[in-house]
Amino acid sequence: MTTHSEKTPVSYDELAAMIDHTLLKPESTPADAAALAREAEKLGTYSICVSPSMLPIETSVHVATVCGFPSGQVAPEVKAFEAADSVKKGAEEVDMVINVGRAIAGDSDFTEQEIRAVREAAPKPVVLKVIIESAALSDEQIVASCEAAKRAGADFVKTSTGFHPAGGASAHAVKLMRETVGEDFGVKASGGIRTLDAAEEMIAAGANRLGLSGSAAILAELEARA
């Protein structure tokens, strides 16, 4: 059970500035994505995160998208093409899924190479986040994947797609990821974060970005507590 000593209280503005307001359900429509953008603007979140097929999308907040989502099993050159195409259509941030099977097999060279391929296709200032699907990995595999992301020039490591049956973000994984990448690298917690307590727990563990689909409810919970 999490205690309050294990959480980091945040203000509304601080929390909103960490949120990628997310809509990645397969059945989502362009109207749903447009509504997400309007909601993000009202809430003041850092960004929206939508599927590549929803691009381009007009909004005053930052625009993130996903790549190789959700399985990560497409070829690196396909991920690279998808990332480049998304950037052409206005994506400022790309959240790519690694080939989780290769990570489990211990092939960190492959992980590094596929991340590097996407990085080259979507060079800075595009922000590249690397989804490692931490719930499906051992601690050793999490560390190896995070180290590969750093070597390949990514900007963030991210816990989860939110679609894997193994589960989503955990404070343990976030803490390990932060310890591995250091303080000058991004850590995004995503997958199953549905309450303010959970969000604060992830921040306390080391996350500086959160992927949330229930952003409005969590921010409302924060306002109610104040």
UniProtKB/TrEMBL annotation:
Family, per entry: Belongs to the DeoC/FbaB aldolase family. DeoC type 1 subfamily.
Upper lineage: Bacteria, Bacillati, Actinomycetota, Actinomycetes, Micrococcales
Name used for this protein in its record: Deoxyribose-phosphate aldolase
Record-level Gene Ontology MF annotations: deoxyribose-phosphate aldolase activity
Family annotation (InterPro entries): Aldolase_TIM, DeoC, DeoC/FbaB/LacD_aldolase, DeoC_typeI
Keywords: Cytoplasm, Lyase, Schiff base
Keyword Cytoplasm among UniProt keywords: yes
Gene3D superfamilies: Aldolase class I (3.20.20.70)
Active site: D95 (proton donor/acceptor), K158 (schiff-base intermediate with acetaldehyde), K188 (proton donor/acceptor)
GO CC field: cytoplasm
UniProt source species: Dermabacter vaginalis
Catalyzed chemical reaction(s): 2-deoxy-D-ribose 5-phosphate = D-glyceraldehyde 3-phosphate + acetaldehyde
Location of this chain's protein in the cell: Cytoplasm
Task of the protein: Catalyzes a reversible aldol reaction between acetaldehyde and D-glyceraldehyde 3-phosphate to generate 2-deoxy-D-ribose 5-phosphate.
EC numbers for this chain: 4.1.2.4
Pathway: Carbohydrate degradation; 2-deoxy-D-ribose 1-phosphate degradation; D-glyceraldehyde 3-phosphate and acetaldehyde from 2-deoxy-alpha-D-ribose 1-phosphate: step 2/2
Gene Ontology biological process terms from the UniProt entry: 2-deoxyribose 1-phosphate catabolic process; carbohydrate catabolic process; deoxyribonucleotide catabolic process
Pfam families registered for this protein in UniProt: DeoC
Keyword Disulfide bond: no
